[in-house]
Amino acid sequence: MLLLVFGLSFLSFFPSLSLSQHFAPTRTKPHHRISVSLNLKQRKQREEKRRMMMKLDTSGLESFSAAVPSAMAAAEDQLFAPPSFDLPAGCADFDKFQMEAKQTLKHAKGTTTLAFIFNQGVIVAADSRASMGGYISSQSVKKIIEINPYMLGTMAGGAADCQFWHRNLGIKCRLHELANKRRISVTGASKLLANILYSYRGMGLSIGTMIAGWDEKGPGLYYVDSEGGRLKGNRFSVGSGSPYAYGVLDNGYRPDMTVEEAHELARRAIYHATFRDGASGGVVSVYHVGPNGWKKLSGDDVSELHYKYYPVQPTPVEHEMVDAPPA
Amino acid sequence: MARYDRAITVFSPDGHLFQVEYALEAVRKGNAAVGVRGSDTVVLGVEKKSTPKLQDSRTVRKIVSLDTHIALACAGLKADARVLINRARIECQSHRLTVEDPVTVEYITRYIAGLQQKYTQSGGVRPFGLSTLIVGFDPYSEKPALYQTDPSGTFSAWKANATGRNSNSMREFLEKNYKETSGKETIKLAIRALLEVVESGGKNIEIAVMTHKDGLRQLEEAEIDEYVAEIEAEKAAAEAAKKGGGASTSASS
User: Fold this and answer.
1) Mean pLDDT taken over chain A
2) pLDDT-derived band of residue B8, with 50, 70 and 90 as boundaries?
3) Average pLDDT estimate for A104-127
4) Which of B98, B104, B107 is nearest residue A191 as measured by Cβ atoms?
């Protein structure tokens, strides 16, 4: 709209400056190509196109002010002065701007998930809250994905990304089983996923997952993320609530726990993370992976857990308020 | 019939792929190769044509390793073998990289056979003119395995097999004399099978032995001569026993 106005004003002030100078490329200039015989209809269509192009060709604007120096230029400086409002900060440096925009959109993986290996297998636990900025979009998201009967994956980051790629991994694991007549190892499965995520690096996938399972070598736990990283370890926690979960988990961890003790430790760790982190909450799910596959141990609502761990104490009243006697 | 053997992708009216069959002919003209699977050892043997005096025999290796736990011997076009072996070696390493596990013998055999099959169903290419014998130990089960592939792309597992020249007679011998063996006995069985079709003497045989612990080991000529001497002695003893027994029966009758 603005450009058209400029164009019109430009025309009104300097009609003598030939239009052809700026619109020449689209005008009928002697063409140097082989003439094609067109019927009437085609010729008409071509004319229309040219006319349309002439209207919207605004390349003349910049070249005009550059081409005409001296006094004339001074007069139009006011007319063609740069916009008078201030551009938002960072526009001059678009790369940094883009990066900052990406950062604000990054949800910093609002969740808490954890997994650890102990003598009796692997425990995997997660909360169930999904948030969009400050809005809680769901309190009942399944963040522990069952890849196959002996392998689990946790979800942190983009829910769609995690769900899709975990299902894709499940397909690949099954195909490996069929082709090689033996189950894929946790090492192999995590490597397959890490290689896929690495090939999509920089394209905006947001996944921070842990692959836990039991294979021929015993229990296995790997952390895989969308930057292409893959780590083998005994204890991991992923998500915005992970610092809180690590505090409880690292404090209470012993490799020789019983399944019940490990279960309670995982549940507590997630509960404490949901207490302090706003992006975690809902229901704590705890799974155990043993030699015969995984089994879901519990799913407890964190608010109920809160009152279980910290039951309400009836506080003794120190001073009782008495109504003033009627006058 | 002549019309159907020009292009590889063409079936003949009676269902033959002539190029594949001609490739099998090329295999039959190649040097003899034998493989035997024992309970803890696998042995590969190939017939070695007499080396010309001026040739450096070390550069003509007929039994090669694909990985630390897999070895291969083949019969047929040696140049095709080089290409196939290189691709298989790359696949072994690629598998180690993607699943952090060494290949199983079955996996790499399936890969080689798949490669051979691809060249029977493409335009403008001819099949690989070789059959391979692949031996090795599976990384976790530690069980020995012997597989054979052929130009058509089929593969199967064997307890003992032979390919190349006079493979039929070698296979007959193996079928008659095969029993579960281990260690030295497996090596002797392989050498005996080869000696059936090769001019006698350690000079014309190349043997390689693989165990789970020690990997692949090529036998020195001196060692092979030792085995050959043992085998000859056993044969002579068997003949003498037979003659002696026959004499006694004839005497009694």
Assistant:
1) 80
2) low
3) 85
4) B98
CB contact under 8 Å between A180 and B99, yes or no, is no
Instruction: Give the chain B residue whose CA is nearest to the CA of A194.
Output: B98
DSSP run (H or E) holding A219: strand A218-225
Enzyme catalytic residues of A: 111
Which chain B residues have a beta carbon less than 8 Å from that of A188?
A: 98-101
Mean pLDDT within A68-77: 54
Size of interface A-B (CB pairs under 8 A): 24
pLDDT of residue A17: 40
Burial A65-76 (b: 16+ CB within 10 A, else e): beeeeeeeeeeb
Kindly state the average pLDDT of the residues A252-271.
96
- Contacting B with CB below 8 Å, chain A residues are 176, 179-181, 184-185, 187-188, 191-192, 195, 216
Phi (first) and psi of residue B116, to 5 degrees: -65, -35
Tokens (6 digits) for B162:
């032979």
Q: Could you read off the pLDDT of A280-296 as tens digits, one per residue?
A: 999 999 999 999 999 99
pLDDT digits (tens, 9 = 90+) for B172-210: 999 999 999 888 999 999 999 999 898 766 788 999 999
